[in-house]
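ok trying this again, last paste got cut off
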Amino acid sequence: MQLNKRDFLKALNTLERSFSGTSDNPGSYRCERCDSCAECMFCSDCSVCYKCTYCQDCKSCTNCTHCHDCNDCHRSSYCVQSNHCTGSSYVIMSRNCSDCTFCFGCVGLVRKEFHVLNKPLDRKTYFEVVAKLKKELGINVR
């Protein structure tokens, strides 16, 4: 294949336009109201996700499961209203956390667990504080 710069850029632009014009969900199973997701299962109201399962209202997430209202999260599970988290589980309203578990309202943590607003708590206190905060903030997702 021989292409000059002009021909290459023209062909690339054509491919980009054709891709952005479709809302198909290739390889997905039982997804409802999803847009441009691939190989997802049992998701609803998600867009541009890849290999996610049981997610709702997520955008640009990959390999996530049981996440709700998350953006740009990867390899994460049971996250709620979180953005840019990777390899994390049970994080709520958190941003840019990596390999974290049970964090609420945290930003930029790495390999931490049982934190609220980046402050460490013992397990029992964490769940007491989070239950109260979830009620106060109206977060009904488990």
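PB: full thing came through this time. Residues 25-72 form one domain.
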